[in-house]
Structures are given as structure tokens and as C-alpha cells.
């Protein structure tokens, strides 16, 4: 198994299908159907921005998933202290390779990246009905500290 940084926006867009389809199935009122061309263009625009990193997970030279992370710097303000974090936008593992520890390996790599950069916080959010994500992050010792709620009117 190998994890490396990638700038291959086409491969990231292809691997995005697995996490995108999960979201679209759980929340069709929010998510469009997966569209490779549109998603490829999106990733092409952001993949070289210095605050983002894309981690490609491969096994036997087969791409099995990726993580999209962002280095965030929160300045102090009247209410909050300054801090830095690594924000996890997405982790996507091919459907037939889930529950084999690949997501945990990506989280270990993200933790190592944070430590090397002197960052002591990893943040993320996930959609409430995404039980796969909820269980995965709980297993990886993430703590819920805020909830985002809404009301349709």
C-alpha cells in the first residue's frame, strides 16, 4: 500500500464518484448526480492551490481512494483564539475496497502531515445520515463539538 500526494485531477475526479454517489443517494435534494466532466473541471481549478493537498492511496499500483485536505489558519478575533487545522474535505475509497483499513491509513497519513506542519487539530464534517462516515470517524477517535442544524420553511 502506498500513499502519495497527487495533482492528477482526472484520477481524483474519477475516484470522487464513490463518495459523491453516497452523498447523492443519501441527500438527493442537495447533491446532483455525479458528472465526471464537471467534477474534473472543479478539481483542475483547485488542485494546485497551496492550501489544498490530495493524497492518493494505491495498492499494487491500483488507485483505491484519496483524501482531499486543506491547511486552515484561523486568526484570532474578539471571540476566539487563533489556531491552525488540517480540514478533511473528503475521503473516498472505491466501493469494493471499503472496510479494509484504507480510510484509517489515510487518516494516519493526515495525522502525520498535521504533526510535521506543527498543527495539532484535524477537523472535518460529514452529513448526519452518513452512518459509514459517522462510524468511521468515531472509530478514529474524532469528537463531536458542534452540530449544524436547519429548518425548512
TrEMBL record:
Pfam families: Acetyltransf_1. It comes from the Bacteria. Residues 10-153 form the N-acetyltransferase domain. PROSITE patterns: GNAT. Signal peptide: none annotated. This is Ribosomal protein S18 acetylase RimI-like enzyme. It comes from Cytobacillus eiseniae.
